[in-house]
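ingest -> validate -> predict -> emit
validate: passed (alphabet ok, no gaps, 171 aa)
predict: started
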Amino acid sequence: CAVAWMFADGGMDKWRNRVWQGAGEFISVVSWESGLVVETINITGNNIVALDALSDALGITMGTPMALVDLRGALDGLINLEWIRSAEVSRRWPSQIIVTVHERVPIAVWETSNGRVLIDNRGLSFGDNHISIFSGLPVIKGVGAPAEFPKLAAILEKKPSVKSHVIGAAL
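emit:
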């Protein structure tokens, strides 16, 4: 009868939450005493995105117990940055978080009625941050231009003498 009472009215959820909370507190104490806390976050692969922006997106603070670092949440935070194509986040015991980011590489500037945006080799637009440093990229126009330009770019790669003369395309 006592067991049935414990599981009634959300008792099981309350019990499970208490167990997880207790486990988290135990891990925190053991981690602190053992020195298994985040002391270093090593970020590589970024050329455009500032380290501060990447650190903020990770959401990992120094001193967090290594076992409690939310690697999936950190990865999701990075992937949500418009310049990040992909990333890896891992633990290196006893106290390091290793982050490798792969930034999008712009191949063209898409001119729209709302302004200019960069597009990558998959034909995806990703905003206009830092667009000024890519003034040498071809400017493309047209509703389907982002999806079509990577195909044209692949052809132009095979013909460097032609590619050097292309400054834009209406697709």
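The longest helix spans residues 11-34.
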